[in-house]
């Protein structure tokens, strides 16, 4: 039994240590906001924060997450930055199909938590691992700037 | 997404239907109180059944109003990102005079009679950019009728003339007596009112929601992770299935050894199905590990074994011979022979995968006499028929829960219900003892086929001594999408699949001698399917690139040259003028960095009765790599129901089309699909996304679609910009940067 710290809660998880965090979140804990897209850290749909750093949950074994603090989309509104990002996303109607957006929001939150005024180039770099097949990229950039303004 | 938009509505009788109040026969379950239900007129059989109390309560209305003031719009179309839920709700709320904040949206159940796509006859489904166009009158009538009944109820209760009652933002008021009431307060009384025989729809000048930006109805759920996709469904006792699929199209299971698979912790069953071997487990990861541990021997004796290069060679050979004639004006052969100057160009297009972010999946629960499906459902009626046929059940026994789709781009409108049937086969193979969630891993999704077909185009054109385009011959080679689909009879005529040549056979330019021919090979065993904007994905490229090349040969400005031939097509001309004006066409582009070459290119195309022109600006580096800096778009989709959703669709379409142009290719080697995941089938990343400016033509025409039509012009506009920058013409997609080296 491994104990994970997820969104501030310590939760025992009955799973093999090498099970990817993604499937422990989705199938065991039913936190389904984190999405499966590729299983090989190519698309970023499964992005969660581990000790504040964006990681791909599909390629992070549960054992590597134990002992750290995991934040998922379900807990992103626990910080002012996360709240501001979600609000900007909603204000600008960034989403289309929405499937990748949890991952986008987690990466954007991580970016703004360390850089309150990112440039377009910094956004492109920080969000470069998050694919959006609907190509909502124009609005993702705009929403990150919008959230930065709201936080300033 | 099929392209059935060009067909007139084929529903019999009044396509927008007569409305019927069913609330008097049905009370809502639970304690929500009386509600007002507005239904399309039910067919006699269903009405009899309901009157007899035989039919269970089912929320088949286009709208419900609860005593809690909540207005629920029932959406008959799939929300896959394109904004349908928001658009459909806007139509109802506009005529109802509801407050946007009180409106929520719910997906309709499968019911071909009540929820059919009015452009598709008795078929419920989403595609061909038809959702708004076919619902435009129907859903406004639904809203207007409900409003009239609320007004009648208020008039009766207040004993005032109905004509003195005003409705605004979910409230009815009678100003002379200063009385007012919310929708919810009057919902019960309204449900007892007779249905109005006729309703007056608003004049566009009266619109309060249509034409304005109203926020999307799905944003809040989608930014909080709460939106439910098929992938997120969990039912009690459910097993998750991951399938070993054959390595080649047409191969079958010969034998398999499941010993190691069954030893994987969590694995509950291993079953053979027609399309492979399924491993069922308590969770996805166990199922995947079980699948990976399977040993399967495949019978490939009947498998398709050609590679992409061999297919291309066959297509090139076919293009040497005349094909079936899709359009003929004048005598193109004679005019070409007599032309002062002729040009030729050939274009190649690869297979493309839809690669929606949510790989295909489906949840199924079988009962003794029932089948319940959870799916990002795009083709309700076709899927009901196919699943019913497999199970020996009447189609209406197939219950479908339509969930949000994590993208589709046409893929979830499976023409033969492929992945749904797979899910049902698996559930049946375990005797229906547990609900089953079929999960395709990315690799399964990428290699399953149902691709945008590969195509080869060959064009020849003639200019007269004054540089006028007098002759045009266009020959296309590629598989038919509609063959084997429910639309085959409607859309394949005299050997011509109309979607193979859409955008080519209806070339808008005034050319006196024109001939379009099609070869449809039937010996390519790769399943193909509609892919966002369908035939126009390739026809816009070849026609608009070749027109551009001809303008250059004629020494003419590409915009002016096109406009001179578009005199009979004012909406093409309108968007072309608007895009070129807003892009500063004719003014020099600012220079790039040293060693960089810059260029601007244009394209215009109609698809799904929507007209889009785009001007692209590019910067090409010395090594041939390039970036698209800006795309200026002009769109004419009739009345703009929600301009912000239109902008979003155009922005997204630019990115989607650019993905294909820069990266998109599914290739085969000896019949095996080479690509498997995003490392070798890359999608556009944020750093590659250009700035997109969107200009919407003001229009009084009925609305058409916008989910697809901004895709086709992008690649030719960019290719023409690359030609302006480098002098090199792109003939094959995706673009090979080596072509553009300085």
What attributes does this structure have?
heterodimer, A: alpha+beta, Ubiquitin-like (UB roll), DNA polymerase, domain 1, five-stranded mixed beta sheet, 6 helices, 5 strands, B: about 750 residues, alpha+beta, Aldehyde Oxidoreductase, domain 4, seven-stranded mixed beta sheet, 30 strands, about 25% strand, disordered N terminus
Number of domains of chain B: 3
Q: Structural class of chain B, please?
A: alpha+beta
The CATH class label of the largest domain in chain B is Alpha Beta
Specify the CATH class of the largest domain in chain A. Mainly Alpha
How many strands appear in the DSSP assignment of chain B?
30
Tell me, briefly, the overall form of chain B.
Answer: globular
Rg of chain B computed from alpha carbons, rounded to a whole number of angstroms = 27 Å
- In CATH, the homologous superfamily of the largest domain in chain A goes by the name [2Fe-2S]-binding domain
Question: Runs of chain B with pLDDT <50, length 5+?
Answer: 1-60
Oligomer: heterodimer
Q: What is the level-2 CATH architecture name of the largest domain in chain A?
A: Orthogonal Bundle
Low-pLDDT stretches of chain A: none
Strand content of chain B: 15-25%
Named CATH architecture of the largest domain in chain B:
2-Layer Sandwich
Provide the domain count of chain A: 2
Helical run tally of chain A: 6
Distance between the termini of chain B: 40 Å
């Amino acid at each position: 039994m491994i104990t994970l710290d997820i969104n501030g809660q310590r939760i025992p998880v009955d799973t093999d240590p090498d099970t990817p965090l993604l499937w422990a979140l989705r199938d065991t804990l039913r936190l389904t906001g984190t999405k499966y897209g590729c299983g090989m850290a190519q698309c970023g749909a499964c992005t969660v924060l581990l000790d504040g750093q964006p990681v791909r949950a599909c390629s992070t074994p549960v054992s590597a997450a134990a002992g750290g603090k995991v934040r998922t989309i379900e807990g992103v509104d626990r910080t002012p930055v996360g709240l501001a990002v979600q609000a900007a996303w909603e204000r600008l109607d960034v989403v289309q199909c929405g499937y990748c957006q949890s991952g986008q929001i987690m990466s954007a939150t991580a970016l703004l938590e360390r850089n309150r005024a990112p440039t377009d180039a910094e956004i492109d770099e920080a969000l470069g691992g998050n694919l959006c097949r609907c190509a909502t990229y124009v609005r993702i950039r705009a929403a990150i700037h919008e959230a930065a303004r709201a936080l300033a | 997404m099929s392209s059935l938009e060009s067909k007139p509505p084929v529903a019999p009788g009044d396509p927008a239907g007569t409305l019927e109040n069913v609330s008097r026969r049905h009370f809502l379950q639970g304690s929500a109180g009386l509600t007002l239900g507005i239904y399309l007129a039910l067919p006699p059989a269903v009405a009899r059944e309901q009157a007899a109390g035989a039919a269970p309560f089912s929320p088949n209305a286009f709208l419900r109003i609860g005593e809690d003031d909540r207005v629920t719009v029932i959406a008959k179309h799939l929300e896959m990102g394109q904004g349908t839920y928001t658009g459909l709700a806007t139509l109802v709320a506009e005529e109802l005079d509801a407050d946007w904040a009180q409106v929520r949206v719910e997906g309709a159940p499968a019911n071909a009679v009540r929820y059919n796509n009015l452009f598709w006859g008795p078929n419920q489904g989403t595609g061909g950019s038809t959702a708004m166009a076919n619902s435009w009158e129907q859903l406004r009538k639904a809203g207007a009728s409900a409003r009239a009944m609320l007004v009648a109820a208020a008039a009766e209760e207040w004993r005032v003339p109905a004509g003195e009652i005003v409705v605004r933002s979910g409230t009815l008021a009678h100003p002379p007596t200063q009385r007012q009431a919310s929708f919810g307060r009057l919902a019960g009384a309204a449900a007892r009112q007779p249905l109005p025989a006729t309703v007056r729809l608003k004049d566009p000048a009266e619109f309060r929601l249509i034409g304005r930006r109203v926020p999307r109805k799905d944003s809040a759920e989608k930014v909080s992770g709460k939106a439910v996709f098929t992938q997120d469904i969990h039912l009690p006792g459910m097993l998750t299935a991951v399938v070993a699929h054959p390595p080649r199209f047409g191969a079958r299971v010969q034998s398999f050894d499941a010993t190691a698979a069954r030893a994987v912790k969590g694995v509950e069953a291993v079953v053979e199905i027609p399309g492979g071997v399924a491993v069922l487990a308590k969770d996805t990861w166990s199922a995947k590990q079980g699948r990976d541990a399977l040993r399967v021997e495949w019978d490939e004796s009947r498998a398709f074994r050609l590679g992409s290069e061999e297919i291309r060679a066959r297509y090139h050979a076919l293009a040497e011979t005349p094909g079936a004639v899709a359009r003929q004006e004048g005598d193109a052969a004679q005019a070409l022979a007599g032309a002062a100057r002729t040009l030729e160009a050939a274009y190649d297009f690869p297979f493309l995968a839809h690669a929606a972010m949510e790989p295909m999946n489906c949840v199924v629960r079988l009962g003794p006499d029932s089948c319940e499906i959870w799916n990002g459902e795009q083709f309700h009626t076709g899927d009901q028929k196919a699943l019913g046929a497999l199970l020996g059940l009447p189609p209406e026994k197939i219950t479908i829960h339509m969930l949000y789709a994590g993208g589709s781009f046409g893929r979830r409108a499976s023409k033969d219900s492929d992945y749904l049937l797979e899910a049902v086969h698996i559930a049946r193979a375990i005797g229906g003892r547990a609900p089953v969630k079929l999960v395709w891993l990315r690799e399964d999704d990428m290699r399953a086929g149902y691709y945008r077909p590969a195509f080869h185009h060959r064009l020849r054109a003639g200019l007269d001594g004054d540089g006028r385009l007098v002759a045009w011959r266009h020959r296309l080679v590629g598989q038919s999408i509609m063959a084997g689909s429910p639309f085959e009879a409607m859309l394949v005529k005299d050997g011509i699949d109309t979607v193979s040549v859409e955008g080519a056979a209806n070339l808008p330019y005034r050319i006196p001698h024109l001939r379009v021919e099609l070869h449809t090979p039937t010996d390519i065993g790769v399943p193909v399917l509609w892919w966002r904007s369908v035939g126009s994905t390739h026809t816009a490229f070849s026609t608009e690139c070749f027109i551009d090349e001809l303008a250059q040969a004629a020494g003419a400005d590409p915009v002016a040259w096109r406009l001179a031939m578009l005199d009979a097509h004012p909406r093409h001309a309108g968007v072309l003028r608007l895009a070129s004006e807003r892009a500063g066409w004719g003014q020099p582009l600012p220079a790039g960095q040293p060693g960089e070459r810059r260029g601007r290119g244009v394209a215009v195309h109609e698809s799904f009765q929507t007209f889009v022109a785009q001007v692209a600006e590019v910067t090409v580096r010395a090594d041939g790599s390039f970036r698209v800096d800006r795309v200026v778009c002009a769109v004419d989709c009739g009345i703009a129901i929600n301009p912000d959703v239109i902008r979003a669709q155009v922005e997204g379409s630019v990115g989607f089309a650019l993905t294909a142009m820069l990266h998109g290719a599914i290739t085969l080697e000896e019949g095996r699909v080479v690509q498997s995941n995003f490392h070798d089938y890359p999608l556009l990343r944020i750093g590659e996304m250009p700035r997109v400016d969107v200009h919407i033509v003001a229009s009084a025409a009925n609305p058409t679609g916008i989910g697809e039509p901004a895709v086709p012009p992008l690649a030719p506009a960019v290719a023409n910009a690359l030609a302006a920058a480098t002098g090199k013409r792109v003939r094959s997609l995706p673009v090979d940067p080596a072509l553009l080296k300085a």
